[in-house]
User: What shape does this take?
Amino acid sequence: MEVEHTPPRIVAMSLAQELSAAVKADAQEQQELVDAALCVGQWLADQGLPGRWDRVRPAEVLRCLDFLSPPERERFLFSLVGLLGHAALLARIPAAAAKQSIDEAATLTRQEAVRVFARTTSAQLAILTSPRSAPVA
Assistant: This one.
């Protein structure tokens, strides 16, 4: 019998603080990460998926944030990519799930810098999910 592995639940605020420290974010960048993490955390809770960052759907989250101005929307997407990538690189969520959400975020942005960041992060995660990257037993 195969047992489905459920990734541990991620506390949004902790993830934002960890990433902020890792990238040495300034106060504004830290606040943007916190805001994005809390928005995603609330969306996940509203979906009955608290802490399940492996289930983030960027387009659906953005629909709930339709009040954001275009620059705020882009900052949200940039922060979201960073948060998902960080969680995946720390093996808190499966790389494949993070990659799927990051790829979706790349299609939602209108800023080339955000798109490049998303594609670069996705490419790094693709290496983690490729069969050749698996450890040899």
About this structure: The helical segments are 12-23, 27-46, 58-64, 70-89, 95-108, 112-129.
